[in-house]
Amino acid sequence: MAKRKREPVSEQLRRLIRERGESLAEIGRQTGVSHTVLSRFLRGERGLTTKSFDRLCAYLGLELRKVRRANGA
Questions:
Q1: Class of residue 52 by CB neighbours under 10 A (exposed 0-12, middle 13-18, buried 19+)
Q2: CA-closest candidate to residue 38, choices 48, 73, 51, 7
């Protein structure tokens, strides 16, 4: 069976923000994360603080979970 490459969390978040179809200004108003910060994050120019990351995840209904690997790790 071929190994599936996991998409990094930051890329998943970028993809979900884009798929949402809302303006960055609206997401910024709803989350308190500046649209400038969001824009630079989406372009890969900067990361997010944990506070901004938490706010975006809450807004998008995301949560992290551990995925069991085949080797039990």
A1: middle
A2: 48
pLDDT in tens, 14-63: 999 999 999 999 999 999 999 999 999 999 999 999 999 999 999 999 88
pTM of the prediction?
A: 0.78
8 Å CB contact between 56 and 48: yes
Centroid of chain to Cα 45: 14
Give the chain's length: 73
DSSP 16: H
Residue 10 C-alpha from the chain's centroid: 5
